[in-house]
Design goal:
The protein is an all-alpha fold and 76 residues long. The protein contains two helices and no strands. The chain has a domain of 42 residues.
Length: 76
């Protein structure tokens, strides 16, 4: 049985997924930029933020995979 999918719903879902991922990924990018462009001595302050943001992004991706399907793989 096939179900028609409204394209607007797919667009909204994709937009929401991107929105949820952009926060921690943007924070990682900003932290790396701080380390490379400015003062390397800021590593003690920046590394915990990078670690937290990377974990948030990883957890959200794992949730999205579980919620929307594994695509043939398993979440480890």
């Amino acid at each position: 049985m096939t179900m028609p999918v409204d394209l607007k719903i797919v667009e909204l879902l994709c937009s929401r997924l991107c929105h949820d991922l952009i926060g921690p990924i943007g924070a990682i990018n900003n932290g790396l930029e701080l380390l490379s462009d400015y003062d390397p001595s800021m590593a003690d302050d920046v590394l915990p933020l990078l670690t937290t943001s990377a974990k948030q992004a990883w957890d959200r991706l794992a949730f999205f995979r579980a919620a929307l399907g594994f695509g043939g793989g398993r979440v480890t």
